[in-house]
Amino acid sequence: MKIFVTGATGFIGSHFINLAIKNGFDVVGLKRSLYSKPRIELDKEPNWLVKSIDELEENDFKGIDIVVHLAAHSMQPPYDSLENCMYWNVIAPIKAFQKAVNLGLKKFVIAGSCFEYGESGLLYKEIPVNAPLRPTLSYSASKAASSIAFYQMAVQFKLSLSYFRIFHVFGEGESNDRLWPSLKRAAIEGKDFPMTKGEQIRDFIPVEYVCKRLLEQCKRDNHVPFIENLGTGIPKSILEFSQYWWEVWNATGKLLIGELDYRDGEIMRYVPKID
Q1: pLDDT (tens digit, 9 = 90+) per residue, 236-256?
Q2: What DSSP line would sit under the chain, residue for residue?
Q3: How far apart are CA 33 and CA 14, in angstroms?
Q4: What is the rounded radius of gyration, in angstroms, for the C-alpha atoms of the chain?
Q5: 2-170+204-230 homologous superfamily
Q6: Which stretches are transmembrane (predicted)?
Q7: Do 5 and 30 contact (CB within 8 A), yes or no?
Q8: In contact, 70 and 10? CB cutoff 8 Å
Q9: Which region, left, alpha or beta, applies to residue 226 given φ > 0 means left and ψ of -120 to 50 means alpha?
C-alpha cells in the first residue's frame, strides 16, 4: 500500500513516516525544499517529492492508495494573516486533493487541530466533536474551515475521510519553545524552570500514540466520512505533567511554580470528549 504524506518533515510527519515504513508501507513524502530536514532522524528515507502543496499535479498522485495530510501553515505564534492561513490550510490542499480524486483516489486521513473549538472550551468539561467551532486565532479559524471543506468534499465525491482533531501532542522533534521541550532542556541543563501555577487541565498525547492512531486508520476500510477527537482521555494539569517529567529526567533544578502569569484569555480546562 502506498501512502502520500504532506507535512512529511514536520513534527508529527517525521514520526509518522518512521512508523509507516517500519510497518511495510511505501511512502511518498512531500517537502517544500531540498533543504527541508525531518524533525527527527528517520530510520529510512521515504520517496521524497520536492514541491509546494499548491504545485501538485495529478501525476504526483499516480499509484497512491491513501493521502495522509499532516501539513499545516502558521501553527506557532506569531500567526500569519487569516488570508494566508486560509490559502495554505484550505484552498491549496483542497485544489491538490481534487486532482487526486480526479485520478480515483478515495481515502484521506487528515490531521486537524483541537484549537478549532476555541471558546467552546469554556462551555464543556469535555469538548464533544459536535461542539460549535469558535476559533480565536487565524490558524485555528483556517483549520476549522478546512474541516468543513474536507467533509463537504468527502460527501460530494463519496470519499473515505478520517479527520482527527488532535489535542496537546508532545515528544521528540516538537518546536523548542513548547512546554515539553522547554522542560526537558531545563532539566538536562540543571536549570530552574519558571512556570505558571499549572492549574490548566489538558489532554497531553505522546506523538507516538497519535501516529499509531493515524496509521491504524490507514489500514481500516471505512466508507462514511467522520470527524473525531484524538486524545488519551486522561486529562491532567500542566503542573502534574511538568512534575512527572521533571522526575523522569532526574532534574536537579526547581520548578518555579507561580513564577509566570497565565496568558490573557487562558482557557483553564481544555480537554476532549473521547468516543
Answers
A1: 999 999 999 999 999 999 999
A2: -EEEEESTTSHHHHHHHHHHHHTT-EEEEEES-TT---SS--SS--EEEE--GGG--GGGGTT--EEEE---S--SSSPPPHHHHHIIIIIHHHHHHHHHHHTT--EEEEEEEGGGSBGGGGT-SSB-TTS--B--SHHHHHHHHHHHHHHHHHHHHT-EEEEEEE-EEE-TT--TTSHHHHHHHHHHHT--EEE-----EE-EEEHHHHHHHHHHHHHS---S-EEEEES-S--EEHHHHHHHHHHHTT--S-EEETSSPPPTT--SEE-BPP-
A3: 15
A4: 19
A5: NAD(P)-binding Rossmann-like Domain (3.40.50.720)
A6: none
A7: yes
A8: yes
A9: beta
Written as nine digits, the cell of 124 is: 464543556
Q: What type of residue sits at position 200? A: Q
**pLDDT (tens digit, 9 = 90+) per residue, 155-195?**
999 999 999 999 999 999 999 999 999 999 999 999 999 99
**What are the residue ranges spanned by the domains of the chain?**
2-170+204-230, 179-201+234-270
